[in-house]
Amino acid sequence: MEAKSRTLEITILSAEDLRIDNKSVKKNAFVVVSIDPFHSKMTKMDGDGGSYPSWNDKLEMDMPMQTNFVSIEVKCKGSGGQKTVGFARIPVTDFIGGYSPETCVQFLSYRLRDPKGLKNGIINVSVRVKVPVHGCSYQAAAAGRRLGIPIDGQKDFGVVTGIPICSGYPSNSLFG
Questions:
Q1: 84 contacts 31 by C-beta, under 8 angstroms
Q2: How far apart are CA 84 and CA 99, in angstroms?
Q3: Mean pLDDT taken over the chain
Q4: This prediction's pTM
Q5: How far apart are CA 69 and CA 100, in angstroms?
Q6: Are 172 and 46 in contact (CB under 8 A)?
Q7: CB of 44 within 8 A of CB of 30?
């Protein structure tokens, strides 16, 4: 049975040099992370980081297998409402299918673009794909860390190596 989605764990760490209309952002910056138009999550608002906000917010989202990009939008809330500061699209191939295993935490930085397409700061994130638990049996999942076989009646649940008896060779060639 193949999974239809994976769990994406994305931590929005910080941003650098955020501006609106070429003026430094004063406060109230936050980030919206979207997998698609129907699934998004938001960080808390940074009230005093200015144009160098810090969130360190960990967001977990179900990411369908066919997802190609994760979108990050930095916004700022002011008296005139919410304004988009910058936008970045993270290719899923940046953290899946590369040289490091999918489940490793990867630290990434992306250039933000404002609504006009101009460079507008940098966003720093960490990304990890969590391994689905449904890949093992119900009993193994329920056991948690207690995977293995009890050795000599003890409860240490060590690892046992098995050696096959039937190797495909005629029995007389192995034992005599």
A1: no
A2: 34
A3: 81
A4: 0.71
A5: 19
A6: no
A7: yes
